[in-house]
Specification:
about 5% strand; 4 strands; Rossmann fold; binds zinc ion; about 300 residues; alpha/beta
Length: about 300
């Protein structure tokens, strides 16, 4: 088993004491990563917490790599529920209303940032959360103008290698399909029921408005809401039969490297802007002194 619980590694907020957390937060260029998951059906073959496990594992792997390069970074406990109304139909789903989830994310940020972090990074694991995570980024950014506030949905970081790794055609790498199942086979294989695999390919939209996109790595210009009762099939969107632990290991390694590099860049950037701000402060302090002398 590659994935383990809360607080077990040195970059986990949950396993640290408050003086240790403050020491990291007050370091120059400090970054807090907040994994955001969901509890929703992932077909008959994967656990409902799949998005929590994957976002948390990528966050912790990347933070450990960045931390080894002296980036001051911690990973908060993952937000275990998200916005999954469209999955309620199958069962197994626990969801928040949009406004509640926005409040949860902004209040997590508001309290966590009291420890002095220079940047906060929401690492989202579930497509249905994306607009709310973006709204939280804007809300927290408005409240904290001196903190860098960033978000992404983690699987977009894998776009450069996903096309090389995949064996499925369009529609194979979506909800509980080849991509997520491969990662789970690598990170938590004991949680995957390989005998229960169910395949469900959706067709690629043909025009500007021809329904939703059904692959992690295809995007269109429209956001289209689909009511829960329009969802049918096994709950999978994609092809878990083409998943493998080897593909999962390659995807995980790539995701960890990409995110670790980003964390390093963010740390350097916020550290530079903080020192520029300090120089600005001391320059204006000197001017004030001059004025006092002149008075
Ligand atoms: Zn998922």
């Amino acid at each position: 088993m590659q994935y383990d619980g809360l607080g077990v590694d040195s970059v986990s907020w949950a396993g640290r004491t408050y003086p240790e957390i403050r020491a990291v937060g007050e370091s120059d260029g400090s970054v807090l990563v907040v994994p955001v998951g969901s509890v929703e059906q992932h077909g008959p073959h994967m656990p409902v917490a799949t998005d929590v496990v994957l976002a948390d594992a990528v966050a912790r792997g990347a933070a450990a790599t960045a931390s080894a390069d002296d980036v001051p970074v911690l990973v908060s406990p993952p937000v275990w529920t998200g916005s999954s109304d469209h999955h309620l139909h199958w069962g197994g789903t626990i969801t928040l209303e949009v406004a509640t989830m926005l409040t949860v994310l902004t209040q997590i940020a508001r309290s966590a940032l009291q420890n002095g972090f220079d940047a906060i990074f929401f690492l989202n694991g579930h497509g249905g959360n994306s607009p709310i995570v973006s709204a939280a980024t804007k809300t927290v950014g408005t409240e904290h103008p001196h903190v860098e506030v960033i978000a992404t949905t983690y699987y977009f970081l894998a776009e450069p290698v996903a096309e090389e790794i995949r064996d499925s055609r369009y529609g194979g790498m979506s909800h509980a399909g080849e991509f997520e199942t491969s990662l789970m086979l690598h990170l938590a294989p004991e949680l995957v029921r390989e005998r229960e695999y169910a395949v469900d390919y959706r067709e690629e939209p043909k025009g500007g408005y021809d329904g939703a996109f059904h692959d992690f790595f295809s995007h269109g210009p429209l956001s289209v809401y689909r009511a829960a009762d329009s969802q049918t099939g096994p709950g999978t969107t994609g092809d878990p039969t083409l998943a493998s632990a080897e593909k999962g290991a390659a995807l995980y390694e790539f995701l960890v490297e990409e995110l670790a590099d980003l964390l390093g860049e963010i740390a350097t950037s916020v550290d530079d802007s903080a020192s520029a701000e300090c120089e600005g402060d001391s320059a204006s302090a000197e001017r004030e002194d001059d004025e006092v002398d002149g008075a």
